[in-house]
Prior knowledge:
The complex is a heterodimer.
Chain A: H1 3-19, H2 21-42, E1 50-55, H3 71-74, E2 79-83, H4 87-95, E3 101-104, E4 110-115, H5 119-130, E5 141-146, H6 153-184, H7 186-191, H8 197-227, H9 235-257, H10 263-280, H11 292-298, H12 302-316, H13 324-344
Helix pairs in contact in A: 1-8, 2-6, 2-8, 6-8, 6-9, 6-10, 6-12, 8-9, 9-12, 9-13, 12-13
Chain B: E1 5-14, E2 17-27, E3 32-36, H1 43-50, E4 58-63, E5 66-67, H2 72-75, E6 76-79, H3 91-100, H4 108-114, H5 130-142, E7 148-152, H6 160-175, E8 179-184, H7 187-193, E9 196-201, E10 204-209, H8 211-218, E11 222-227, E12 242-245, E13 248-253, H9 256-265, E14 274-276, H10 280-288
Parallel strand pairs in B: 3-8, 3-9, 6-7, 7-8
Antiparallel strand pairs in B: 1-2, 1-4, 4-5, 9-10, 11-13, 11-14, 12-13
Amino acid sequence: MHIKRIWIMFKARNWEFFRDRASFGWNFLFPFLLVAGFGILFGGKEPTAYKIGVFPEQTTGIAVASLELPDAFKKTRFLQFVGFASQNEAMEKLRHHKVDIVIRTGPPPYPYWINDSSPNGHLVEKIFQASLAGQIDSSLIQRGQIHSAEIRYIDWLFPGILAMNMMFSALWGVGYIVVRYRKNGALRRLKATPLTAFEYLSAQMLSRLFLLMFTLVVVWFGCDLVFHFHVEGSLGNIFLLFFLGSLSLTSMGLVLAARGTSEEFTTGTLNFISWPMMFLSEVWFSLEGAPEWVKHVAQAFPLTHLLTGIRRIMNDGAGLADVLPEITVLIMMTGMFLGLGAALFSWDR
Amino acid sequence: MTPILAVNNLTKTYGRLVAVNDVSFAIQAGSCFGLLGPNGAGKTTTLEVIENILPPTSGDILYKGHPRAATFKNEVGIQFQQTSLLAMLTVWETLQVFKALYEHTENLDNLVKQCQLQEFKHQRHENLSGGQRQRFLLALALVNRPQLLFLDEPSTGLDPQARRNLWDIVNAIKASGKTIILTTHYMEEAQHLCDEVAIMDHGRIIARGAPEAMIRKHCEGVTVVLPRRSFRQPLETLPLNLQEINGAVHIQTSNIDDCLKQLLSCQVDLSDMSVHSPNLEHVFLNLTGRQLRD
Lengths: 349, 294
């Protein structure tokens, strides 16, 4: 392996990226526009139905009609009931603003809890109380309250948009570009030189990692100037997770880049992978309340683990030890993708 | 003396299609060897198998008497017939990239001068004209000071002036002692540059030797060319060695006086007649009954 060769290919790819002004600008503009758009449209509030956590209930296929809760409350529109097996699980979600209220089902009185920093929680409490036809006494309800820092929708969404941008940039910037180079014969020209496939792929990966992290830093601090994000945990840990996520997503791009000379086919494959990954990895909305199988499918995507880890650090103040499972999965996925990409790579087929 | 390159019984197939069929030849160091033939004859495939870009189906390729080793890529320079390069880079930057991929390299300033790229070295390579691009691709092939240089159709698509210009550069490279293998379907290019040529057709070598010797061996005298409309009678009734190709009648003769007398006696209109010395095109014509660019 020659570091000199990797270095020159790394530089060449970076020259190409920085000189392609349209795509270079878009890489910065796109995430900023998305964040700004959501910030303006929703004013930092999540645009979804109110989520009611109930326990002890089954976690899948919850039958709302059979819940032991006031009928008027169950029939209220725009409420989504999410079942939890235990109070602890439900309270954890309440702390993380993934549900707006937690209610224990059963015969009255109904104990319920809200997060004092959640405006939605206070609104749902009013709806719940209204459903009891004004009988707000201890024989019917028992109020509980927890406190955790307020997390605006934009605080929750922001890492998702950055990770999504990272995913598209990694998959298209490596997968699509290498296939285009294979199709137009540029890889064939490089094959005629002493450059090895390992050196070439390493350079592609390092270049993309550099560009992703560069973009991340610029977009992060640029958006923070406008939106003043609330970060509970360490910024260093967040960037470490982003780095591991970039590594994993870029390696995934290398697998897609390993074979093929058809840009159309590669576009289809990239869309087939990136769109489900974007929707199922909780970029835009929480999967709380979604069917279990959907949550299982989501675990197959590196973006899911990247976002889970980053949101735990950013929104909940988790440390590195707390996100060790996500770190481990990302490293394992990177290893698997790299092995597969290297084994399948061809210069001209 | 051991040839710098020896190709023995090389065959390359794609499924049932035989692209290269039992091809053998050897090249001495310092010479210029041409593979001549029409499009689809198997020239580029032969070259790419020798370059180690494609694997052979069967046959041996010996470089300096031995199978090609890992160092082979360091010692050869390749100019592909069709290629793309890393986008958005200037001529100079692309040369720097390729220079960094090799161990022993040419001074880039000298290379730029040799290939007449001084004016364009800070231009993006995508913006070069046809002739400039071919000279640039040649410079890339020379960046590692190769002992053996492969040029695949180096002047295809160039205007006559650009082609002459390129030939001058190739002749200078040849004079510096490098061995050159080139493919072309321009017989004039082969005659101008090559010490030895092999004519390929349908994947096989059908003739091989020095250009002048091949012409002497396969063509006699001169070729008289007349439009078909100059003849009133059916061609097969004429007592001449002639062939009709693309509306023109080619008559080969070792005695121009007798030929003209015969044509006049047959009342052929000679007003559009032209006379040509034989060249490799005629060799190919005589061997296959077709023109090189049919």
